[in-house]
């Protein structure tokens, strides 16, 4: 039976780990070689990794700390978490030469311009995508970077030496302020405000544990930073398996899809999401989490009607512009037209 008959397994890529870097006692970076696969990415994006295990394994998302503008190999950083199956498996088992199954980079925590000044706030392993953004600005743009980085103590500071080297390499363009709980206590609103108020006119990027992100966002809002100038990234556990096979049997309508300059019409089974229908038809549609949380699969609805099961990332303006999440969209009616080409 063909994939079109039974659905299709998501198109994972094989990436070989060429180097493992011990960043801190509980954090490691994994330098990847995806071979000839299409692995283009933007600063701040993440990679979904299949973690082997019982029942076919699980999927976990890890941010890229590398910059696509510095000639670096793509690199993800993983920090152990208590009872974290994925992080502990990677840190305990992966060595140089290990081959990982991954999805293409995805995510919307990315800068629109590398030429504007930015304010970056990171907590713990939230430094990972922030580091990618900082390096991209410094190496390929003209904007300056102000970074506030919070950790438990000095031993917990990921990329400590690399941040110091970047500051030396780009004098006057990178300012780094460390907040250590062992010295200053848990981050407070008043403390953060005092440190970032001078940069309240900048676009801000926030990543880290939920309490830190919520506190930082509230401080920036209180300083008058418009919501549209604040971008946040939150690390959440994957609920489903984006690598799993999908079943696209049953009655079908059809969808006309424009992707990469080509227009095709394929069946859209009633019980399938748009992404499942496209993958089953052999169309290499972009996606990552399959949970309506990352926007990697967003496309424009040109004609027809769809209903989304879940949406955590598209705001009302996006919806008014016709954006839908392919991984969550189901058909309402017999025919739909969508485009990934803008």
From TrEMBL:
Its cofactor is FAD. PROSITE patterns: 2FE2S_FER_1, 2FE2S_FER_2, FAD_FR. Residues 253-342 form the 2Fe-2S ferredoxin-type domain. Keywords: 2Fe-2S, FAD, Flavoprotein, Iron, Iron-sulfur, Metal-binding, Oxidoreductase. The keyword Protein biosynthesis does not apply. The keyword NADP does not apply. Residues 10-112 form the FAD-binding FR-type domain. This is Ferredoxin--NADP reductase. The lineage of its organism: Bacteria, Bacillati, Actinomycetota, Actinomycetes, Pseudonocardiales.
